[in-house]
Specification:
InterPro entries: Yip1_dom. The chain is mainly alpha-helical and about 200 residues long. The protein contains nine helices and two strands; from the N terminus they run ααααβαααααβ. The longest helix is centred in the last third of the chain and has 34 residues.
Length: about 200
């Protein structure tokens, strides 16, 4: 089962990446058996915490929640953005392959696998949203992003079969793409908020 890779990516990533390369799963199966499941963690936890737990800003301030319908709407949009983001990053891995001496594939199997498994720490960090404290969430997601970047760098030479020296530049280019994707989702959020998909706050 593909979910077995979750533990290995934290304990012995090198051998886990080698197993992932040997499996060479098709993108459709990888999405159904891995990405669709793990990407649910953050949106579901965010829905529960924002609609039912609430949060405060500063001391002696009232509890703030999102209206259940608004929280559900934003969680679904976040989930879809995550799915698109993983695919876009995987496509970028495959598209840049020849530039760094790797093999470009028609279905981008290796590229999407690399992107999906590198995002595992970010998927799991979604559990932190059950405790909706901004500074705590920011620290957890920052740590997850750092480890995700390390996994990307570590997995590139193994999955894409290139020398490790080339992986440094390759990983740097991919992190730039990841930042562009992140900024694009933020811009998209602002645009959606302006057309009626913004959060609806209620006092707890």
């Amino acid at each position: 089962m593909l979910l077995n890779h979750v533990f290995g990516l934290f304990t012995h990533p090198d051998s886990e990446w080698a197993d992932i390369r040997r499996e060479h799963e098709k993108p459709a199966r990888l999405y159904v058996a891995y990405v669709l499941i793990l990407a649910l963690i953050g949106p579901v936890c965010a829905y529960i915490s924002t609609a039912h737990f609430g949060w405060t800003v500063g001391t002696d301030q009232p509890l703030i929640k999102l209206a259940p319908g608004s929280a559900l709407q934003l969680s679904v949009l976040t989930y879809l953005a995550m799915l698109v983001g993983v695919f876009a990053l995987g496509y970028a891995v495959n598209w840049m392959a020849r530039t760094y001496g790797a093999r470009e594939e028609p279905d981008a199997s290796n590229g999407i696998a690399l992107a999906a498994y590198s995002c595992t720490p970010l998927f799991l960090a979604g559990f932190a949203l059950l405790y909706p404290v901004p500074w705590f969430n920011a620290m957890v997601f920052l740590a997850a992003a750092v480890y995700g970047a390390y996994l990307m760098y570590d997995g590139l030479p193994i999955v894409m079969d290139i020398p490790r020296e080339r992986a440094i530049m390759y990983a740097g280019a991919l992190l730039t793409v990841a930042l562009v994707i992140l900024v694009s989702t933020r811009v998209g959020s602002v645009l959606l908020w302006n057309v009626g998909f913004g959060p609806v706050f209620i006092n707890g």
